[in-house]
Each structure stands twice: as C-alpha cells, then as structure tokens.
Specification:
The chain is of the alpha+beta class. It contains 22 helices and 17 strands. The strands form five sheets. Strands 2-1-5-10-11 form a five-stranded mixed beta sheet, covered by helices on one side. A hairpin with a 4-residue loop joins β10 and β11. α3 crosses α10, α5 packs across α7 and α15 packs across α18. The chain is elongated, with a radius of gyration of 35 Å. The termini are far apart. The C terminus is likely disordered.
Amino acid sequence: MGRWVKRGLLWGGFAAIIGALFLAVAVGFAAQSIPSFYQLKATQNAQTILVRARDGTEIVEIGPSFGEWLDYDEIPQNMKNAMIAVEDRRYYSHFGIDPIRTTGAVIEGFTGKDRIGGTSTITQQLARNVFLNSNRTFDRKAREAVLALALEWKFSKEQILELYLNKVYFGGGAYGIDSASRKFFSHPATTLAVDEAAIIAGLVKAPSRYSPTADVDKAVARARTVLRLMNEQGFISASQASVNVDAVKIRESGSQNSVRYFTDWALPQLDLLLPETFAPIEVWTTIDVGMQKAATAAVQANAPEGAQGALVSLDRNGAILAMVGGTDYVETNYNRATNAMRQPGSSWKLFVYLAALEAGYTPDSRVVDTPVNIDGWRPRNSSGRNAGEINLRTAFAYSINTVAAQLGNEVGFGSVASMARRFGVTTPISTYPAMVLGSSEVRLIDMTRAFAAVSAKGVSVEPFGIIKVTTADGETIYEHERGRASQLVPDYVAAGITDLLQTAVNTGTGRAAQIGRPVAGKTGTTSSNKDGYFVGFSSGITTGVWMGRDDNKRVAGLQGGRAPAQAFAAYMRYAVKDRPIEEFDTELKLPEWQLEPDEEYFFGDPDEYYFIDEQGNLIEPGYGDTTRELPFPIEGEIVPQPGAQPGNQSGAPPTGDSSGQAASDDFLNRATGQSSPQSGAPANEVPPPPPPPMPRTVAPNNQQRQ
C-alpha cells in the first residue's frame, strides 16, 4: 500500500512540475505578445455601435465616451482605494490571480452566501476588458488567467491600476473614471470626493443596475457598501464612511427615448451572434420608429397613476416592432416587457382552451357554468353568479372561471402546462388546479409570442430584434435567418381558438380593444387588481400589454379589459393603419374522428332506428332506451330504417340465422370491430373501439360526463 502511495505522490509531483512548466511557457509567450504600456495607453478598445430602425433611420448611437487620461499620480487616492476595496482587496499581494478569493468563492457558492464582488482580480478584469470578451466559458477564463499572469510579469502594480481605472466601463457609454466623473457629477475625476469615488467604484459590478442616473437608491446603497469595505480595510475612518452619499449632486440626464428598453434587450445578443470584434458596427433592428412612439404614448397615457406599464408588439414573422419596458426609461431602466415575471390572469386561459379544443371540443360545444369543487378548490366567477348551460364560445368570451376549471380538470392540468410550454412559455408552470386561472408567473414577451403563434394559424413564432449587422464599410457580418417553424396545433384547433378570441373582443371582456377591424384577444386580471393584461392580434400584428405596480400592490380599478385593452387599441390603431384588413379564418375543418354522423341520421322517430348498445349488440326498433346519449359515437351507430331492412322483410326481431339478420355482415363487422361474423367471438365480447372523440358536455363538480 505504501508503495502505491509513494508512486502516486511521485507521479503527482511530476505532473505538477510539467503543468507549472507549461504554464510558465504560456505566460512567457503571452507576455511577449502583449503590447507595451504606452501602446495600451494610446489604444482604446471600446466599440461604437450605431443602431438603426427597420427603415434605416438612426435611433441611437451607443459607444465609448473617453475623458482625459489620468496618470497614476493624478488619480485621487480615494478613487484607487475605493476600487481596490470593492474589487480586489489583496491587489498588492497577489500575482494576478487570487487563490484565496477563488477558493472562498467556491465555498460561498456551496453555502449560498452573497459575494460583494466576482472572483476576478483587477488584473484579470483588465485582461478581459482589453484582450477578451465577456463570454463565461472555461477557455476564456483560462486565457484570462494566463494573460493576467503575463500582465503582472510585464507591468508594475501602479501601471496595471492606471490602465484599469482609465479603461474600465462604468455604464452609459463612459470608459474610464474621468469620463464617468464628467457624466455623473459634471466635473473631472481629479476632484472626486470620497463619496463620489464610492459611487463610481460601485458601478463596475453592474453598470446599468447601479447607474445613479437610472436608479439613485440602488447607486447610493451600493456606495454605502463600498464605504463600509473601505473602512474595514483601513482606507478611511469610521467618520468618513458615514458621509451622506444622498447629498451627492448627480448630473441630470437628458431624456432618453423608450427605445433604450429595446436596445438593452437586443444588443447583448451580439456577443452570441458575432465573432469577437472591436470595430465600429451598424446594427439594423426590427423596430418601427412610428410604432415605438405610438406604443410609448399608449402606455404612458393609459397606465393608472402609480402603476407601471409594458408593451411588446410582434410582426407575423416574430420581428419586434415596438417594445416598452416601463413608463419612463430615465426613471427606471428595468425592462418589464422581457424581465418581469407577473401573473397573467385569465389571459392564461388561452392554453386551457387550446388543450380542450385539441381534445375534441369545438366553440359550439355545450358546457355548464355551475359551482365547482376540485379537491377542495372552489373557484368563483368574478360576477359571483353562474349562467348554467352555455357554449364554449360564451364561456371564453366572458372569461367564466368555473368552466375553465372544469376544462382544465378534464383535459388534465399537466396537459395545459404542456400546451403553454409548446407555445413558448419559459418560466416555471404550476400544475395545481388554480393554474388554469393564471396563477403561474410569466413574462409578457412569452405570452405575446404564444398569441402570435395563434395568429400564425398554430405555427411557432420566435421573437427577434436584429435584422443584420454591418461594418462601417457596409460589409454584412450577420444576417437574421428564420429558424425552422413547427406546427404547434392542428389547423382546426388554431381556427377554433381564434373564433373564441375574436368573440372575446366583439362581445366579451375585451370590447375596449376594438379598433374598427377584426381583432382577436384575451383580457387578464389577477386577484385584488394587482395585474392587468391584454394580448391580442389584428392584421398580422400581435401585441401584449401589462400594467401593475412593481411592488405588486393593488391598483384601484385595474382590469385587463380597461387600461391594458385601451392601451392596446390606442397603439394598434396606429400600427395597422397602413395594413389591409384581414378577416380571421375560423372555419373548423375537423378531422374524420371528430365528425358527427350525417344530420339526416337524427331525423324521424327514434323508435324507427336500429342502434348498437355499449356491448356492441344490435338493438331492434322499439327495444331498449333509445333516448339516452351514447358515451361515444360508433361508426354507423344509428341506422335509419326505411320501412324494412334487407334480409328481414317481416320486421321480426333478428335471430342467429344469418338469413334473418337485421343488418348486413359488413355493417355488423364494422360496428362491433370483428373481422368476420364467423370469428367465433360471443356477441357480447367486443374488441375495444378506436379512440373516441371527446364528449361535448362538461359535467359539474368533478364528475364524469354522461
């Protein structure tokens, strides 16, 4: 045993030596390839991005803003200390990689404790900012580590910190502390006070989240964390750490168009779409300038006081025509259209009724609005009343909760969840009964995508925002290609749900969404009026609107059929004005298994018909209960008797003799599922019939339908 241990230690030591040599060689080569300090100082690697609308109009330019380069001695000591305190407390003692910090991050990851900063040292961050991208891959991290070691080998700590503070990104297009100081405080970085330095140092972790021009409260809270760390590490006294950062004068930012909600969502995708490049580029997007302005105005004009609003509008191919993530981008750049997870209310019933239609229901199917009890869950209608027997179309139009509960219980809550997944919902979905009423939180963009697929007659739709990317010279380096679409539900299901959605707008809860041309859509309102939803489509454009408070408190009078539907209508009147009016295809072309027998079969006196009972036996006229509804239709189950049947001119009851049977062999074989009348199977033993269509009446109180 000892011999194997010795061998293991020997081989382990040998491998460690080889690894160390390999690392040393890699670091040496990297150090030789790194430009000189003065070359790095003269080179700015940030990228200018010109964003264009779908018609080529320039909508925003996002790019670097560089202030004056500050030498190490010109940088205020408080600024250096603040950055080291929050980003790399052992900066002056490590060799580019901090083993203690890396090990601690792993332990904290297992214990679930929060970390103030990431695992990268200042030197690693400089290597990433200057030479690499931000992709979180093992290869990139390995290259970052090697480059960090090379930088420490080649440059002094003072030079590395000087490069870092003049090149790091602080948000809002500002690169370097001088640019950040001028942007946020309207003065050069050489005069930064300790509280201002703390605010700037706190931005590195998440520039958009902690930007003082976007969210002062978050910026101040982060600055207090930086000051506390500076005090703990001996950079400032306790009295300096207690400065009033609330009193810091933040430069007022000019108004920004709400299109920034869209660019904040779309532009990070460039890291995945493009090869690594720092060259200036032009990004051609799907945004329609006029529609974006109309969407912004619609949300701002209709959102209740104290509430936020969001809107997403998709073209029939998934192109995002307009995106509004809130009522004011400057006040808060949080994108509620793509990031907020809120309950959709009854707009979720889209998936309940899709599952029911796929299971065999039609818009004309009869259902019963009656009190329901599903394993102790007793949903109520918002009106507090029950309408009794109605059709599916009416139940959907008036968003009757008890019917949705019965349908979900019958087709299965898992089937409803599966349908939502099929149509693009990416957030967790509950399978408890209450899920049919929209208790699972979703993103607005996902719900809009689902309705867009219905508008596309059941074909999947993938939202996208970037059409192409070109260089400054006009060379195309990326162009969007539509992915492979799939048929999510049969045509007749898409037609059926469109029928229901159109009725909901014409006569139901979505009447406020009418715009003078065909519209299909669904409202949604959550308990205590915390969320209001409307999602619908017309003329190939699908738009979703959400309204509510960020703190999830009640909004007086908020209902999906009011403010959200009104905002939808205000926007859509503009969005579709240049498009031809399109009628919806609601014609049900049902599959053969769902078709009823010919209508003529149901005319006349029931006593004049032969029929097959549940055991497959042929019952003659006048025998048995011919008035009850069969649990499922059997091909040829009801046969008219024009006088006398072949082979039985007298009309006497059939006998076992084939010459006196009331129906032909072919009919009996098809009706009973037997291959031949001589198969020897007893008359009451019938093979299972083919899968029957679903019955068309919902039974109350979780009972089987008869």
